[in-house]
Amino acid sequence: MGSIGIGPKTEDPGAEIRNHIAQLLRGRFGFRGGQLQERSLADAVRERMRALGRSNPADYLRDLLSDGDDGRELPALLSEYTNTETHFFRHRGRFELLCARVLPELLARKNRSPRPLRLLSAGCSSGDEVYSIVMSLWPHRSKWNPFGLEVVGCDINERALAKARLARYGSWPLRFAPPNIKAGFFAPCPGEHGILEVNEAVRRHTSFRRANLVDPGLPDQPGMAGFDVIFCCNVIIYLDGPSTVRLLDNLWRMLEPDGFLFLGYTENFPGLRQTCETVSSQDYVAYRKPRPERPATPAGEHVRGPLPRDPVVPSAGTKVKAPAAAAPGPDENTAGLCELARRHCLADRHEAAAEIVDRLLDRAPHCAPARLLRGHLLCGRGERAAAADECIKVLDIDPLCAAAHLLLGMLLAEAEALEDAVGEVRKALFLDRDLPLAHYTLGKLQAGQGNREEAVRAFSAAIRVVHAQPDKPVAAELPVELGARALAELAEQQIVRLKLGGS
Ligand SMILES: C[S@@+](CC[C@H](N)C(=O)[O-])C[C@H]1O[C@@H](n2cnc3c(N)ncnc32)[C@H](O)[C@@H]1O
Fold it and tell me: What is the number of domains present in the chain?
């Protein structure tokens, strides 16, 4: 692969790379921009580069991309970047509302279904909220003890999660805790002056895990559904509009019917108030998820409560709009011509498409979408090496182009460079988790290598993504004729074949 370019020269090449990284984090985790966050992203990147002994930001971006989803660098960067401000009994009224109004309702229902009471702290940071929940519910334990109590904390920040698991705190995070809390639930840490450790009796009811709240696959992960109560406080304020919708959609799927959702103090959604019953006390409110009106479909689609599709940006009171792309795209005329070329490709008018693409690239050789189309056309003509070359050029211009990684992966697969192919497809998925053709291609590659379980997982992901977003093109900007439903059917057939023992 060619090196990751930093595009046209600017005064501060680091700023351009940071822009790419900001885009990457926005795509994966939904962080909205804003000057403050950009400044802390700059600090986070600088800190990570220092830790890795990197001096060139372009090298750092390459590390980040090649490390991929399961690697260590992305969690390390997130640990530097996300705002983890929290403390015990933050907005105490929420915990009082939980005990006074929500718990009695849940307990009344538990008599009919005797499974543990399950609560989630989504975006739990260092665990203060998780332990505050257990400590608030403690005086009522004679009522919940017969069923059991589980409080799960999840976050993307691994450093914060490690702190949560350690359960040791100084006096500052406990500054707003009720007076009896320190004596009742903590013990001094021997040899660590001023540090208190949460008692084992409380910790036994808690667990922590890494999870991205805007990942559409999250509710399908083991243990991430069936919650009676979800606290998701002071997380949405950091997200952009589309990610807020994804996050709320996830929370809704993870919550039991009649379960309760607590949001942060300033995270008000008039849409939720219109569709949900609420319980409230003083300034605090919890939303009750309505029971589904229709049964689950045979296809296994999730039945969702009537989550409003147009939530309103917290406190700002304006409708959510997709954020403007951070990197400058092609001008209107170029974009229109690329679209025309794409349509020609889809209608099998490849010569007409090639003519437009050639003209465009004569005029604007750095136009990544046109280069991608040229790669696609060359691939269609069987000119694999030239097509791969175009993909590499696209990635030199736009290192975050998921479609270019995907096309390169498919070309490498055809050339039987299977390991490299898997690497490229994974990069595509790292940049765009919801790319159905990338999941499908990964499934084919894994099946071809005899990795059945991984193949089934990848095909299932393709189906899930199509069900979640049936109108999304299966291969991003690549003009692939295959429709989303057809791809899902193919994936289903592949799963059946694998389960019957084929590869
Ligand atoms: C300001 S803290 C809030 C902690 C706690 N909920 C509270 O209200 O005190 C926000 C937390 O959300 C986490 N977070 C942000 N985006 C996330 C995402 N997409 N998935 C999971 N956690 C996320 C951050 O890592 C951070 O720990």
Answer: 4
Q: How far apart are CA 27 and CA 172, in angstroms?
A: 34
Q: Helix, strand or coil for residue 418? A: helix
Decide if 303 is inside a domain: no
332 pLDDT band (50/70/90 cuts)?
Answer: low
Q: Is the CB of 268 under 6 A from ligand 1?
A: no
End-to-end CA distance of the chain: 30
- For 440, phi then psi, to 5°, come to -65, -45
267 and 178 in one domain? yes
Q: What is the spatial distance between Cα 75 and Cα 340, in angstroms, rounded to a whole number? A: 40
Does the residue 324 lie in any domain?
Answer: no
| Residue 424 CA, ligand 1 centroid: distance in Å | 30
Q: Are residues 39 and 132 in the same domain?
A: no
Q: Is the pLDDT of residue 310 over 50?
A: no
> Are residues 276 and 352 part of one domain?
no
Distance 114 CA to ligand 1 centre (A): 31
- What is the Cα–Cα distance from 138 to 202, expressed in whole angstroms? 8
Give how far Cα 127 sits from Cα of 83, 162, 173, 203, 424, Å: 14, 9, 11, 11, 36
238 lines ligand 1 (CB under 6 A): yes
CA 87 – ligand 1 centroid, Å: 12
157 Cβ below 6 A of ligand 1? yes
Same domain (yes/no): 277, 239: yes
Going through 271-420 in order, the beta strands assigned E by DSSP cover 277-281, 284-288
Q: What are the pLDDT digits (tens) for 415-439?
A: 888 888 888 898 888 888 889 999 9
Question: 3-13, pLDDT tens digit by residue?
Answer: 333 333 334 54
Q: What is the DSSP letter of 82?
A: S
| Best CA proximity match to 430, nearest among 23, 13, 76 | 23
Domain that holds residue 382: 331-399
Question: In this predicted model, what pLDDT tens digit does every residue of 445-483 receive, in sequence order?
Answer: 999 989 999 999 999 999 999 998 888 889 988 998 888
What's the token pair of residue 1?
A: 């692969």
pLDDT tens digits for range 282-309? 778 999 998 876 443 333 333 333 343 3
Asked if the structure places residue 87 within a domain, the reply is no
Residue 293 resides in a domain: no
Beta carbon of 37 within 6 Å of any ligand 1 atom: no
Cα of 160 vs centre of ligand 1, distance in Å, is 9
3-state helix, strand, coil in the chain (%, to 5): 55, 10, 35
Q: Measured from the CB, is residue 60 less than 6 Å from ligand 1?
A: no
Looking at ligand 1, which atom is closest to the CA of residue 211?
Answer: 21
